[in-house]
Amino acid sequence: MSPKTAGSVPFPRKIRSEGKKCRKVYGMENRDLWCTQCRWKKACSRFLD
User: Fold this and answer.
1) What is the number of domains present in the chain?
2) How far are the Cα atoms of 5, 14, 18, 32, 48 from residue 23, in angstroms, in the given order?
3) What confidence score (pLDDT) does residue 4 get?
């Protein structure tokens, strides 16, 4: 058995907040362009990870 664990991988998976979301793409000035989920602070449906 090797002493390495599964947690030692530098980037095992993408963190949810890393992906582009409506807020980052359109900005606060253009909230009317955001998807409904982003307006309600839910998981973005437009820019999927």
Assistant:
1) 1
2) 36, 19, 12, 10, 14
3) 56
